[in-house]
Description:
- The chain has 370 residues and is an alpha/beta fold.
- The protein has helices spanning 40-57, 78-86, 106-119, 136-143, 148-153, 155-167, 186-189, 209-218, 233-243, 267-285, 295-300, 305-316, 323-337, 351-364; strands at 26-30, 61-64, 93-100, 124-129, 202-206, 222-224, 255-263, 319-321, 341-345.
- It has 14 helices and 9 strands.
- Strands 1-2-3-4-5-6-7-9 form an 8-stranded parallel barrel, surrounded by 8 helices.
Amino acid sequence: MDEIRGDEIQGDEIRGTARGTAPVPLSVLDLVTVGQGRTATQALRTGVEIAQLAERRGFHRYWVAEHHSMPGVASSSPAVILAHTAARTEHIRLGSGGVMLPNHAPLVIAEQFGTLEAMAPGRVDLGLGRAPGTDGATAAALRRTDRLNEGADDFPQQLMELTRFLDDDFPDGHPYARIHAVPGPVQATAEGGVQSPARPPIWLLGSSGFSARLAGVLGLPFAFAHHFSAQNTVPALELYRDSFKPSTVLDAPYALIGVAALAADDEREARRQVLTGALSMLRLRSGRPGLVPTPEEAEAYAFSPMEREFVDNWLVNIVHGTADEVRSGLDDLAKRTGADELMITANAHGGEARLRSYGLIADAYGMPRL
């Protein structure tokens, strides 16, 4: 496989800085969740408020994740959300966690993220996944094909095509050699061009070993979905580090993990809030996706023994409680996994609880108020 170049990308654009007493840099993953009685407009406004709070408190980056056909998740269009957020923030890194590459033509992604880079120079990350981010029928509608395995199997080839569009370096004789992703490096080589040739760094996302190994072989940063695949976290990170080959992008491995965490003023309130996300996930896994339920509905729900087992297992991997308890849990997770960065996702019914959680976590670590 060809090398991922990214000649203008430096590791400093990828590596974050820990603030306060945090063991590693802290970042935010937002699903732009929509609760019962709330609108998508309100959810998107909350997303901007979270990004602004994260920027003020020294979180390193704010990412949104591509999902489809889920009433309770309003992040179907990461590039649109990121453009909106870029206009309302100043310096926090913004990115996709991630764009599901098989759902899109690589040229389209290169154009979208080239546009974002032009809007917010030096602030944009392009995280890529190979899952559909939805069910099979919706994936078929997105891709206009029912051959869904083909997209995942072709992921390395699609990744290389996307990278060549971003770097504008298809070799002579290639069918796409005269096609350029704009905005992009071609504008720097055009007569009178002054466009920066820089482009967003690519991250590979995963919940198993496939992307871990691929990211390592290509010398790319890696993001692992610990928040829904906790049992695979340590093996995947070890595989990534063992497979890593230095590249023009990174000279050493850099891995972040997505962590479900929610802090509240007391343990009971934290439990009430995370139970809403657990019930929402139970319904999704049961083929009944909907809006995120209220804490009152989640507390009153009559779980069957099988449902209770699912929820209890789900909650085990959510760091929740008071701010001090969450800080301790995050510290332990960073030490146990050796992750270079923790990306926190706080899933709850209302935006107030999520904003409160990020603020409490920042306070617990003595993070700055910028």
